[in-house]
Amino acid sequence: MNRIDQELAALEEAITHLAKEFQITYSNYLTFLGQCVGQQLIMAAYRICTQGYPESFLNLSVNSRQQLQQSLRKLAQETQQQLPSLLEQWQESRSATTDDSDHDSDHDSEMPSSEIPSSTEDSPFLNAPTEPSPAAELTSNPRNSIEKLEEWLKHLESGITKTIQDVSVETNRILHKSSIIPDKFPQEILEAAAKVEASAVETAESPNIIKIMMETKGDGETDESRLTRIIAIKLRLSEIEFADPNLTPGRKKIRDLLAKMSQLKREYYKKQRQKAVAQAEAAWRASWFDD
Prior knowledge:
10 helices, three-stranded antiparallel beta sheet, about 290 residues
């Protein structure tokens, strides 16, 4: 029994160390990813304006073009800060669900999850208080923490995906508001385009841009409906990682750590099973007596 306890303690220490490795790796990865997403959204918007809808861009005044570019740069800068903040954001949202008073105090600063803040002052990501990350929580409470680590990683990856989707939606909104993407396409269609599965749309020649065919009504009352092609932005994590080699080592490190976590999980559950069997055998012997 003592040997099994020692082996479990060693595994728990390994899980604690793994949580720290994940935190450091994701911190570096998200910093690079934020920069890359900002660069890719600018590049995708450039292609939309110059290749997708060049006439629409040329119809803008010089001042309108500059305002459009300024809005895109601002969104790119906010994104560079939002992605690294995901490490603290998950802990903040988790604390809010268990503490009603904290939830009430933060209510005024909340925003719908589907929106991107228009300024850094309005962003709860950028002004979030510094709190210990889930990985730090695991290091202080290692027992049975493999499930917590898996949950944290799942939420973190979901947060990355959602943030990239939200940035796509906001970029399309900016282009639509500036009349680059034609006004006849409702905003709801553009939001859906940014979230649709890649297999359901036609991928354009340029990365992070999609083409969707939709039915639109004719100009007159008797005109029949016709199919019209929408060109919109859909940032994809795979294309963003492919475009920047700085992200490759980070993603590879994450995959290696995930494989290590799977191995530790199997070993940990195996030792827990062995301990339960040993305890049951000892309990049987302790309660057994001969007639």
